[in-house]
Amino acid sequence: MDSMRDRFAATTTRLLDEDPSLAVVLAEISADRFEQAGRDHPDRVINVGIREQLLVGVGAGLALAGLRPVVHTFASFLIERPFEQVKLDFGHQDVGGVLVSAAASYDWPAGGFTHMAPGDVALLDTLDGWTVHVPGHPDEAETLLRHAVAAGDDRVYVRLSEQANTSPVKVDGEHFRTVKEGRSGVVVAVGPMLDNVLRATEGLDVTVLYATTVRPFDAEALRAAVGPGPAEVVIVEPYLAGTSTGEADTALLDVPHRVLGLGVGRAELRRYGQIEEHLAAHGLDAVSLRGRISGFLSLPEGGA
In terms of Cα–Cα distance, which of 240, 247, 241, 236 is closest to 209? Predict the structure, then answer.
């Protein structure tokens, strides 16, 4: 299976051929994947070098000129380092574009903490008007990227990951999908967390919702899943723990409820390790999730 970043490059290259209003802005990262596209469209594939503030500023400038920019680098260099430019050049100037990240929370452990950005979605939550897609499979990444590119002047963040679920789910860029139904609680699995959540909840009497578009948050789907309440909800996200608990609280404002947010912890892990070791350290592997979900929902770990 190709990676989400491979699929991003292949899909965007095709879109450059199809849509003369599309432009790609890079900061060295993934530049090798766009070599042919750069030769074919030298005026619309721009590599600014290792200058991330300029990366975002150029993207916004292209938007002001009437193009639809796709701006790409690692999440820490796309959202965190040039955050002022994201806030002002896109938000304050009220122009649209597609920010596509790679290697977010801990997808390249050897890069160290400088290349990790588990707080990216939470940081974007401080700004108005951003749609956030978190695909869990390369097929979903392609669907959501095409959706983002075609989204007029909207501001869209597509968060790619080296982690991927075994099989894709049909996604539409808006709604959560019900992948399992039960009566003893609702677990929302975001993007690449789905496989581990399904393994963790095997034999448990819970509903599992799958979310690949987390902003706007699909309040209607969550309300439908919990019913009249009282409700118990667990949200498992591949980024900072608790990022979406406020969204769930708002969605269930008139329903008695409890919400547990599981995700990446705030404590820095100072050893490189492997992705699987980071998952386990943050309690996001299937075994840890089963214990944490069962404990919160007061279900026996052996099944209910």
Answer: 236
User: CA-based angle 107:292:174, to the nearest 5?
Assistant: 60
* CA distance linking residue 13 with residue 152, whole number of Å: 19
CA pair distance 260, 31, nearest whole angstrom? 40
pLDDT bin (cut points 50, 70, 90) of residue 211 is very high
Average pLDDT, the chain: 96
**Is the pLDDT score of 304 beyond 60?**
no
Virtual torsion, Cα 36, 108, 48, 152, nearest 10 deg: 80
| End-to-end C-alpha distance for the chain, whole angstroms | 35
Query: Could you tell me where the beta strands, DSSP code E, fall in 146-281?
Result: 155-159, 177-180, 186-190, 207-211, 213-215, 231-240, 257-264
Give per-residue pLDDT as tens, 72-107: 999 999 999 999 999 999 999 999 999 999 998 999
> What's the confidence (pLDDT) of residue 303?
61
Strand partners, 211: 190
Residue 104: the pLDDT is 86
Q: Which amino acid is at 17?
A: D
Q: Where are the beta strands (DSSP E) in the chain?
A: 22-26, 45-47, 68-74, 97-102, 130-133, 155-159, 177-180, 186-190, 207-211, 213-215, 231-240, 257-264
Burial per residue of 56-84, b for 16 or more beta-carbon CB atoms within 10 angstroms, e otherwise = bbbbbbbbeeebbbbbbbbbbbbbbbbbe
**What domains appear along the chain, each with residue ranges and CATH number?**
4-159 (3.40.50.970), 177-297 (3.40.50.920)
pLDDT confidence of residue 299: 87
